[in-house]
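Dear colleagues,

As part of the handover before I leave the project, I'm documenting each prediction I ran so the next person doesn't have to rerun anything. This entry is a single chain, and its sequence is reproduced below.
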Amino acid sequence: MTNGQCTGTGCTTSQWFDSQIRVENIGGANSAIGTQDTYDPNDASGTYTHVFGYDEVFAQTNVGQAFTVVNFRTDVLFQRAAKVWGVSLATAKTLVGVEIGLEGYDVETVSATLFSFSFSSGVTQYQPGLPVTVTDCRFADTDLVDGANQGKTVDIVDAATMASAFGSKIGQSSYEPLADTAQIGKIDIVDAAIVAYYFDRTC
């Protein structure tokens, strides 16, 4: 993406986003689904300078358990990262790479088998009549006011937030990434139905 103007005190500009989805275990405990964090992976050599880092916990797994990532949307992840960093959602960007890997700190071994993956470009539109599948606890993303924090309740304030963003799409100022629960790049009746389905429920 292009470098933006820096105004104010202590602001940062960057031409790069490093955005990750994770299955994360810290100190023996699985991080809650929906946990978000930001980081600047700057190194002493200056190879990476002011990268806007963002990660989100996508799932939880146990030792020996298999997990499959399906229908993941890189454009929606960018929208969430941009919102957290205060970068305009309409910012022009280009996907320059996808990395799949493992990392660990202060552990003796990290072992996993990556069987296969497929990657496709473009937006897959929702087709009426097909079921909308929401993984257990993924409705944390519909708790719009509190963000993607697990343990929150979907309530009337969230419904109002959904209503204010209804009809918007990526690139418009009214677009709210967390309201795009179906992850199709726009906020429509499918997203409203998901919020309605989980209304007054807590993950």
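The first strand starts at residue 17 and ends at 23. The two ends are 36 Å apart (CA to CA).

All the best with the project,
I.
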